Amino acid sequence: LCLFRGGGVLQNMASGSNAASQETFRKFASYGDTKATGKEMTGKNWSKLCKDCNIIDGKTVTSTDVDIAFSKVKAKAARVITYDEFVKALEELSSKRFKGKSKEEAMDGMHRLLIGKDPANTGVTKVTSVGGVDRLTDTSKYTGSHKERFDESGKGKGLGGREDLHDNSGYVGAYKGAGSYDSKVQK
User: Fold this and answer.
1) Contact at 8 Å (CB) between 89 and 25?
2) What's the Rg (C-alpha) of the chain?
3) Burial class for 43, CB neighbours closer than 10 Å (0-12, 13-18, 19+)
4) What is the per-residue DSSP string for 31-42?
5) The CATH classification of domain 40-114, taken from the options 1.10.238.10, 3.30.1330.30, 2.40.110.10, 3.40.50.300
6) What is the number of helices (H) and of strands (E) in the chain?
7) N- or C-end of the chain: fewer Cβ atoms within 10 A?
8) Percent of the residues in the chain that have a pLDDT greater than 90, as a whole number
9) Which residue, 94, 99, 105, 18, is CA-closest to 50?
10) Where is the segment annotated Disordered (predicted)?
11) Which pLDDT does position 179 carry in this prediction?
12) How confident is the model at residue 64 (pLDDT cuts 50, 70, 90)?
């Protein structure tokens, strides 16, 4: 990244970082909502963007500053911001985040924080196989009526495995000598 103030290098770089920040805006705007178009961002996603892109540093920019900037730029009754309002919110925070820098340098710093960032999936539940979980979910070790709900491969039989099929033969389930009474009794 070049920071020359001459002939338009800064302008050229700003348009490149503008495209990158638009892409980051789109990713965060559609994060967590399958119906989102990526053209409008909620306050929750705005806060997530500021945390994940390190705009919030805990000293000069706090989560309260982020919420205030969001409220300032959105329309009165709106619950979302557009990309243009997003840029205005970045301008609000850039002077706080990059103190002592010019407005252009501060905005360039903000765009650099956004380049190539994706929403982080922190706190996502992972599948665990610690302790007795493997033993408890191994269908080959099931006994009794639960054993009947799964085939040899461990795949569930569905409704067929849950239906209570009645055997009216007079013998208890799994009795190996079923039907042999008549041969054992002498008449």
Assistant:
1) no
2) 32
3) middle
4) TT-TT--SSSEE
5) 1.10.238.10
6) 9, 2
7) C
8) 32
9) 94
10) 138-187
11) 77
12) very high
For residues 48 and 43, give the distance between their C-alpha atoms in angstroms, rounded to a whole number.
9
- Output the DSSP codes for 86-139: HHHHHHHHHHHHTTTS-HHHHHHHHHHHHTT-----TT-------TTHHHHT-G
Domain residue ranges of the chain, discontinuous segments joined by +: 40-114
Q: How many residues does the chain have?
A: 187
E strand or H helix at 146: helix 144-147
> How high is the pLDDT of residue 12?
38
If you search the block for the tokens 């992972």, which residue do you land on?
Answer: 126
Which among 101-105, 143-147, 157-161 has the top mean pLDDT? 101-105
Distance of CA 168 to the CA centre of its chain: 53
Helices (H), 54-82: 63-73
Is residue 87 pLDDT above 70, yes or no? yes
Amino acid at 32: G
